[in-house]
Amino acid sequence: MDTTLPQTGARPAPAADPARPDPRRWWGLAVISLAQLMVVLDMTIVNIALPSAQADLGISDADRQWVITAYTLAFGGLLLLGGRIGDLIGRKRAMIIGLIGFAAASAIGGVAATGALLLGARALQGVFAALLAPAALSLVSVTFTEPHERARAFGIYGAIAGGGSAVGLILGGLLTEYLDWRWCLLVNAPIAILAVLGASAFLHDQRKEAETRLDVLGAVLASGGLLAIVYGLSEAEQHGWTSGFVLSLLAGGLVLLALFVVAETRVAHPLLPLRVLRDRNRAGALLSVGLTTVGMFGMFLFLTYYLQVTLGYSPVRTGLAFLPLTAGMMTGAVGIAARLLPRVPARMIMTPGLLVAATALILLTRIEVDSSYVTHVLPSMVLLGIGMGSTFMPAMSTATFGVEPRDAGVASATVNTAQQVGGSIGIALLNTVATSATARYLTTHGSDPLAQAAGVVHGFSVAIWWAVAFLLTAAVAAAVLITARPAAVRAADDGAATSAEPVAVLV
């Protein structure tokens, strides 16, 4: 019996090719970038609002640091757990849950009537940011697998991740100066709603059913260890680096992390599979990111104080003064790194980028009380932005390249953890160095107002030299440890080896 269908003018639609990328993937990247921008800018937008919030809610000088620390503690300490949860429940779902929770926590903080409620809301923001951030980065990693597209996508993502801090300063200055400090938190709600709608429309999570059990022991050890270290670093300024309280926290954190490593070798479904860290290139990229953020976060803090306190800039003017840094990051990430990464090894982009950034910091050590922004600060900001953009984009791409789909979330969380821990170390360590240098300067030069201003700038300069050392160490780590060939060459070899297997695309 002939079962052949008769020919007609209309042909049935061809089956979707799972190997072909979704044409809406760039809209998906826009949604992911919007979510990442919200997380990054929230780390600086509240800094501008803090003096007004402190006065409004009656927060003491001793407790005001917790408005910032509550967020970074929860964020940095729970990132690995958030990344693994994303692997288990799906990155799109984790991202949407993170967005909704982040928006709700922001709204609570925006209407807070007491300092305690504001601190609790900030901690809750950090919890949901720890779920959102690794999900966003892992979606970029597993979505864009073609080398040129991957480079372009990570260039855009890296520029937003790096420039979001400056955007936070500008937006925070505008909202605080012309509206109210509460809008620095409430503004997250409409951003999150827009991102949720975009994620629902453009992101498609093709997670395979695999591991369904969570490593509870690993989560407790890793989160507890990171929380103890970040908390100890945040308290070092107040209690001193040699205090028993700080040393106990740091030692306890290191012990917990050591136990975490041991535990991960013995559980069936580890929170952080050690296979993720055994790759030499990934380890080099993570180390470079951590060392770089030590220097960058400290410099960012010093420049903010220098512009507002020493030069007397308003919040809005301070934010605008950071625009060249953002422009430099966009140039370095999209204009340089994204174009070169498919054809040039990552270390050949990162190492020069780190050297350029170190040169920018060296120029900043020459600032004085009456230095001009145009001649002393502006050139350093442009160079620093170019160097950072040329560093972070290939570092993030290298750290997440070649990861098994089941580990994409935790690998992305590891990158974010390196950034947060490095930033916490940078703020705590370099701020202590600057304070000590200022105290020594005042001991020998007196304590009149002119000497105090000069002493503060001297402390900044000494601490920036430490930041230069961290960036140079990161450059050495990138040059020595990262040996991967250009992305296009690796992709071609991998394609030849696995040509029979389709590439899964999530967006």
UniProtKB/TrEMBL annotation:
<feature type="transmembrane region" description="Helical">
    <location>
        <begin position="95"/>
        <end position="117"/>
    </location>
</feature>
<keyword id="KW-1003">Cell membrane</keyword>
<feature type="transmembrane region" description="Helical">
    <location>
        <begin position="348"/>
        <end position="369"/>
    </location>
</feature>
<feature type="transmembrane region" description="Helical">
    <location>
        <begin position="154"/>
        <end position="175"/>
    </location>
</feature>
<dbReference type="Pfam" id="PF07690">
    <property type="entry name" value="MFS_1"/>
</dbReference>
<feature type="transmembrane region" description="Helical">
    <location>
        <begin position="26"/>
        <end position="46"/>
    </location>
</feature>
<keyword id="KW-0813">Transport</keyword>
<dbReference type="InterPro" id="IPR011701">
    <property type="entry name" value="MFS"/>
</dbReference>
<protein>
    <submittedName>
        <fullName>DHA2 family efflux MFS transporter permease subunit</fullName>
    </submittedName>
</protein>
<keyword id="KW-0472">Membrane</keyword>
<keyword id="KW-0812">Transmembrane</keyword>
<feature type="transmembrane region" description="Helical">
    <location>
        <begin position="123"/>
        <end position="142"/>
    </location>
</feature>
<feature type="transmembrane region" description="Helical">
    <location>
        <begin position="66"/>
        <end position="83"/>
    </location>
</feature>
<feature type="transmembrane region" description="Helical">
    <location>
        <begin position="181"/>
        <end position="202"/>
    </location>
</feature>
<feature type="transmembrane region" description="Helical">
    <location>
        <begin position="245"/>
        <end position="263"/>
    </location>
</feature>
<feature type="transmembrane region" description="Helical">
    <location>
        <begin position="319"/>
        <end position="341"/>
    </location>
</feature>
<feature type="transmembrane region" description="Helical">
    <location>
        <begin position="381"/>
        <end position="403"/>
    </location>
</feature>
<dbReference type="InterPro" id="IPR020846">
    <property type="entry name" value="MFS_dom"/>
</dbReference>
<dbReference type="InterPro" id="IPR004638">
    <property type="entry name" value="EmrB-like"/>
</dbReference>
<feature type="transmembrane region" description="Helical">
    <location>
        <begin position="214"/>
        <end position="233"/>
    </location>
</feature>
<feature type="transmembrane region" description="Helical">
    <location>
        <begin position="424"/>
        <end position="443"/>
    </location>
</feature>
<feature type="region of interest" description="Disordered">
    <location>
        <begin position="1"/>
        <end position="21"/>
    </location>
</feature>
<dbReference type="InterPro" id="IPR036259">
    <property type="entry name" value="MFS_trans_sf"/>
</dbReference>
<dbReference type="GO" id="GO:0022857">
    <property type="term" value="F:transmembrane transporter activity"/>
</dbReference>
<feature type="transmembrane region" description="Helical">
    <location>
        <begin position="284"/>
        <end position="307"/>
    </location>
</feature>
<dbReference type="GO" id="GO:0005886">
    <property type="term" value="C:plasma membrane"/>
</dbReference>
<keyword id="KW-1133">Transmembrane helix</keyword>
<feature type="domain" description="Major facilitator superfamily (MFS) profile">
    <location>
        <begin position="28"/>
        <end position="492"/>
    </location>
</feature>
<feature type="transmembrane region" description="Helical">
    <location>
        <begin position="463"/>
        <end position="482"/>
    </location>
</feature>
